[in-house]
Amino acid sequence: MRVVIAGGHGKIALLLARVLADRGDEVLSLIRKPEQSGDIEAAGATPVVLDLETASRAAVAEALAGADAAVFAAGAGPGSTIDRKYTVDKGGSVLLADACEEAGTGRFVQISSMGAGAPAAPGGDPVWAAYIDAKTQAEDDLKARGGLAWTILRPGGLTDDAGTGTVTLAAPPVPRASVPRADVAGVIAELLTAPGTAGLTLELRSGPMPIRDAVAAVARN
């Protein structure tokens, strides 16, 4: 499988690249800065310098040429402005999905967040509210597309703990809890080869079920 990861220098993306490369997939990781290339190569992927905030749809489609699947793992990140929540977390996902349709890349996995799908609680951090709104709008954009086999994954609080290989994965609502980034990467790798999960929105936290079994349990027959 040839997989393109947007936001390729993120923590989940680097872990995912290694999982996919180790199982024999070809991985291209989209990054903003050339100096990030060494980390991408160390993870077993090929770096492609392409900024989703400034790139054209044609340029992104060119990077997707021949790809079987795309993963949206990009995000404006902590400390970013409200505006960048919309240009990256929403706009980047929309651009990648548009480019997938142009390039004929049929499979799309979007990393969203628990809390998306509904407005943030009033009176809270306005940046967090913008983040949740941007993620929700990005989800809604995917759900309106008929030409992509999309899956939306909403992890809980992310940690850098070692992966356990076991999770709770289900349609929302799932009670919020944390999950290691390594286990998020493991779930995405399984989702990419599980066509029965297309069209599903799934929430993820640490739990008792082995990742492969958890994905199989939610997949449609």
Sequence-ordered SSE layout with sheet pairings:
Blueprint: E1 2-6, H1 11-22, E2 26-31, H2 37-42, E3 46-49, H3 57-63, E4 69-72, H4 82-103, E5 107-111, H5 126-143, E6 149-155, E7 157-159, E8 166-170, E9 178-180, H6 181-192, E10 200-206, E11 209-210, H7 211-218
Parallel strand pairs: 1-2, 1-4, 2-3, 4-5, 5-6, 6-10, 7-9
Antiparallel strand pairs: 8-10, 8-11
Helix pairs in contact: 1-6, 3-4, 4-5
Structural class: alpha/beta
In which order are the strands of the major sheet placed? 3-2-1-4-5-6-10-8-11
Low-confidence stretches: none
Q: What is the average per-residue confidence, as pLDDT, rounded to a whole number?
A: 97
Total helices: the number is: 7
Whole-angstrom Rg: 16 Å
Please indicate the percent range of residues in DSSP E strands (runs of 2 or more). 15-25%
How does this model look, in words?
By secondary structure, the protein is α/β, with parallel strands linked by helices. The protein has seven helices and eleven strands. The strands form two sheets. The chain has a nine-stranded mixed sheet with strand order 3-2-1-4-5-6-10-8-11, with helices on both faces. α4 (82-103) links the parallel β4 (69-72) and β5 (107-111). The protein starts with a strand and ends with a helix. 48% of the residues are buried. The mean pLDDT is 97.
